[in-house]
Specification:
37% helix, 3 helices, alpha+beta
Length: 112
């Protein structure tokens, strides 16, 4: 930012970089299968997340009926990856809410 204040070309480059980051975040949120607040979507609760020695994540999610599903993810997996799997498991929806007790529910903006 200091260089951008003294150099208009640097400022324009920094603005373009910031703009591309904003656009990337918007594209990620739009592509996410996490439900927006106020929408109608099934709710899944994640009670267990375990990082295994090999670096994979084991996630146990529960639906409101009490059924559970265990999914294994690569260490670099995102909330969007979890939402995608939960949509597949449900089979009749396009988006889901994911609740993490004591941490709340992420939004599509948290998918990066």
């Amino acid at each position: 930012t200091k260089a951008a204040r003294h150099n208009e070309a640097a400022m324009l480059f920094a603005a373009a970089e910031h703009n591309s980051e904003v656009h990337r975040k918007i594209r990620q949120a739009a592509a996410s299968q996490l439900a927006l607040a106020g929408s109608h979507a099934p709710i899944f609760t994640v009670l267990d997340v375990v990082v295994q020695d090999c670096g994979t994540l084991v996630v146990v999610a529960h639906n409101l009926a009490g059924d559970s599903k265990t999914e294994v993810f690569a260490a670099q997996a995102t909330l969007a990856d979890l939402a995608r799997r939960l949509v597949e498991w449900h089979g009749r929806c396009r988006t889901v809410f994911i609740d993490f007790p004591d941490h709340g529910a992420p939004t599509p903006w948290d998918c990066g």
